[in-house]
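Treating backbone geometry as a discrete language has practical consequences that deserve illustration. The amino acid sequence and the backbone structure tokens for this protein are reproduced below.
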Amino acid sequence: MAVPNINTDELSLIKSWLMLTFIRKVFERDSRILIDSGVLKSPQVYVDMIRSGSDRVAVVMTGIQNELTKRKIRIYEVKQASQGIEARYVCRSYHGEMNIPWSALRSEMPSRMRAYLGVEQGMQNGHLSPI
């Protein structure tokens, strides 16, 4: 359903909040896997890096949430479906929906995750870029 008078900035805020929610879940899952796997000799170093990235995500999400509140936007339902992430929200008393397909998540998440982890984009296709 189209929400009257919602602008692209507001839609971007909703999309960012949804993506960051999903990124935090991925960070939490990856941390558990690293600790539980027993494969690494010092998993805590990597888990600390992931938790630091998750903390950065939380700070940005707080800012986004404040902006959503200021603009009278509330996301009230988020679920994972076979096609991607589906969300329902209220924007100034009008109900709306946003769907982010898995393909869009897969293409955008790695660069966002690298940014929050503080990892440079030096890795291209699994190989270090020449200096």
